[in-house]
Write a structure and sequence with these properties.
65% helix
């Protein structure tokens, strides 16, 4: 009666108190009502507003549990309220990922306020990552289609990382058909904002002639811009050009410097190639000790096959792999 306001003024606090007491004494119908999403939502509001003037104590953690239970039953307001609390850190510690998932569900159910909260490029990008990778713990199934949609919205507002991820999906045909032309456009927008990862990928497209005409000068230019930001793959790729003389005059000294910078950043293939150069004295003074250390570092990175077992600083196996003793 208190819950519905029949015969008495509606009093949720009194209703919850009586229902809890009845449920504790085994009353099946009271237990059922307390498990109903609307009851859980209203009880959560009481725990959020509780205090000295209320018989229900203020307990945000308990409120969050009840909102989550109501949300699991499809209660849109509970979903939105919990998502907003986690999004802004209201009464609860911030949890950006979980908040976005809840707010997206509320927005999909027509809650306009939820859509407003998650429409920022940053939020759309974060949602895109969740959909691209999938997150079973948050109830998010992998969906390249949804990831593509989120990245598009963020990219249209100039989010550089979203533009880059969008380019990767276009390039690989994930979430839709392969589209090398759109991949190039997305990478270009991101690269022009200075994102090293996009600059490196754009260099790869020009190097291989994918979606654009093959252009080693442009490939080198984009790799140089990314290498200036210490991007390991770009350092390695640029070193590869100088090592092989592709689009530039061969320069083993420059190649060694670039491979060295990439190896220092943990690039295994760069370390392995530089080990070979150190052993043979190509572009650097011949140095068996450094060659052995670099060969071990390359194998330890997991990027190249381990072909020796001795620990550094010296390995007969590594020296044999590099051509044997002079």
């Amino acid at each position: 009666m208190y819950y519905l306001g029949k015969g008495v003024g509606r009093n949720l606090e009194r209703a919850v108190e009586l229902l809890q007491r009845a449920a504790a004494n085994g009353h099946a119908e009271a237990s059922y009502l307390m498990a109903h999403s609307e009851a859980q939502f209203n009880l959560a509001l009481l725990y959020l507003a509780g205090g000295r003037s209320s018989s229900v104590p203020k307990d945000p953690a308990r409120a969050a549990e009840l909102l989550a239970a109501a949300s699991a039953q499809g209660h849109v307001e509970a979903t939105y309220r919990l998502g907003r609390m986690l999004f802004v850190g209201e009464e609860l510690p911030r949890d950006h990922q979980r908040s976005l998932v809840l707010l997206q569900r509320a927005a999909d159910a027509g809650k306009a306020e939820a859509h407003i909260l998650i429409k920022s490029p940053k939020s759309q990008f974060a949602l895109g990552l969740l959909f691209e990778e999938g997150h079973p713990g948050l109830g998010v199934a992998q969906s390249y289609v949804k990831a593509l949609q989120c990245y598009r919205r963020a990219a249209s507002s100039g989010h550089a990382e979203a533009q880059h991820r969008l380019g990767l999906l276009y390039q690989q045909g994930l979430g839709g058909p392969e589209n090398p032309s759109l991949a190039v456009q997305s990478f270009q927008r991101s690269a022009h904002q200075g994102l090293a990862e996009a600059q490196h990928h754009l260099g790869l497209l020009y190097y291989h002639g994918q979606g654009v005409g093959r252009d080693l000068v442009r490939a080198r230019g984009f790799w140089r811009r990314a290498a200036d930001q210490k991007h390991p793959e770009a350092l390695f790729s640029l070193g590869y050009l100088y090592f092989n003389g592709e689009g530039v005059a061969p320069d083993l000294s420059k190649a060694a410097n670039l491979y060295g910078a990439a190896a220092a950043a943990g690039h295994g293939k760069a370390a392995t190639t530089l080990a070979y150069m150190c052993y043979h004295g190509d572009g650097v003074p011949r140095d068996f000790w450094r060659a052995s250390e670099l060969a071990h570092a390359g194998a330890a990175s997991g990027q190249v096959k381990r072909i020796y077992t001795s620990p550094p600083p010296f390995s007969l196996h590594a020296i044999r792999w590099m051509g044997g003793f002079a």
